[in-house]
Amino acid sequence: MGQVMRDRVHEVALPDARPPIKAMHGANIPLRGLYEISEILTAPTRLQITLGNVVNILSSFVQMRHGEMVIKDAAGELEIAATAGNKHAPQSDWRRFTPQAVVDRICATGRPLVIHDVSKSELFQADLQMASGGATMPVTFIGVPIEAEDEILGTLSIDRIRDGAASVHCDEDVSLLTMVANLVGRTIRLHRILSTDRQRLFEEDGRAEKSRDEKEARPARRSPVKIDGIIGESPALKQVLETAAVVARTNSTVLLRGESGTGKEFFAQAIHKLSPRSKKAFVKLNCAALPESVLESELFGHEKGAFTGAVAQRAGRFELANGGTLLLDEIGEISPAFQAKLLRVLQEGELERVGGTRTLTVDVRLICATNKDLETAVVNGEFRADLYYRINVVPIILPPLRERPGDIPRLAKAFLDRFNSENHRELAFAPSALDLISQCYFPGNVRELENCVRRTATLARSSTIATSDFACQNSQCLSSLLWKGADRANDGNASDEFGRNRMPVESPLGARRTGASEGAAVPVNARGPSHPASGATGMRVTDGDRLIDAMQKAGWVQAKAGRILGLTPRQVGYALRRHGIEVKKF
């Protein structure tokens, strides 16, 4: 037992009265006593009460004045003391019947102890001296050890007034008390085993509950989110997918930001599918594809006769998306006048159709998408700050393809499988072809990669696409020439947009994502065959010796060296600074 209990049971009422010893037949007394004691030991009560009942019932079968049972714990300290026949003694005076020296003697020897006259025993002298003076009657003491599995657990003892008849039955009483002590020992051992098991179960339950609490307290590990149509295993993409899965469970407005071709519409559909609104409509509208007058009618709807050609009432996109999700793509392209109209719908959830007076209430989860730098637009007065704060509740920045190069082979294979299915062909990439395409810069991101795969697959001469099948290996990559020309036309100017109209040297969002300064150039060694810093043949300027050789041939004139390498003077200057090459002046 973990804690020492000093319980003492003096008088415990028994369920029925026992006849006196003299009224019972002598041969039946031990058997009846063992039977009654067995019933008490198997009763579902506390151990202290059980032992107290055993001591009290002994007087029905053994001639005794006092009875006592002392149980020790594993450390030898008193655990339980049960006495009988002491109606007037104080609670703390239990040791007056059995001195500690007697208990220690029985426990040490493990044998019964019979003292016919305690007044003549040295073991009782200390207690007799403390007792009140006067004549005392001779008292006989009988004590037996309580043991189980060769372990001494305590003592069971009685005393009685000595007379000639009682002394004859000492041997019989010792035998009976020994049998009772054995039964008690087994019962105590069973209780201790059950108590230990119960304590162990409590501890295990406590540890399990603590583990559950700790598990609930720390972020749960979720399995990777898989969404149809979105392919990739890069950390940047996984982070966006996890964020989208968390955001989807709420109704908060989401602003998808990223360069053109990063799949903003796919992510908007994914958020809708993962949301509680997935069974409702998903409605999308490209704000840049319509003039302002038509855009208002498309979003809010119109009444019959509201304008020329309005021959019937028409519900707008907000009404069609009621209860579902509405995607407003290219939100950064709407005019300031229309921004004010849109702001009212987002704030109040109410609108009127064009030409109507009835106010309609809509419940729409709004997702906006843009590749424009809205912060710069707000500073320049091109975009309302209040609308910016309204739609920029949960911004999700989609990574460009150059930040997830490991996904390029997976995407290329997926696009090729789609091409094969549509055209009933069985093309496959050679390993070298996948290595080549993985090095490309792809300013147009996933959209440009898909176009590259389709173009190459369409013109492939055999069932295996090799490196020679790519346009960049044959000086026919028009995309590369386009970005190269745009870069030359904008030489010396930092791009403030994601690159919808020209090649993004480094977009503002990319700078904020990676911590780079705004307008910082992309390292040459991160560019592939389609980057303007690379020639039309896919050559990249990564060899300082080759750069020095070109500069020497050109007389250290950067413009001439650029013509030799197929680069602009600005790109040559960047490559010189990157390699730490000092320009010689003549």
Automatic annotation (TrEMBL):
Residues 203-222, 492-539 are annotated as: Disordered. Keywords: Activator, ATP-binding, DNA-binding, Nitrogen fixation, Nucleotide-binding, Transcription, Transcription regulation, Two-component regulatory system. It comes from the Bacteria. The keyword Transcription regulation applies. Signal peptide: none annotated. Residues 203-219 have a biased composition (Basic and acidic residues). Residues 230-458 form the Sigma-54 factor interaction domain. Interacts with sigma-54. NCBIfam families: nifA (TIGR01817). Required for activation of most nif operons, which are directly involved in nitrogen fixation. This is Nif-specific regulatory protein. It comes from Mesorhizobium montanum. The lineage of its organism: Bacteria, Pseudomonadati, Pseudomonadota, Alphaproteobacteria, Hyphomicrobiales. The gene is nifA.
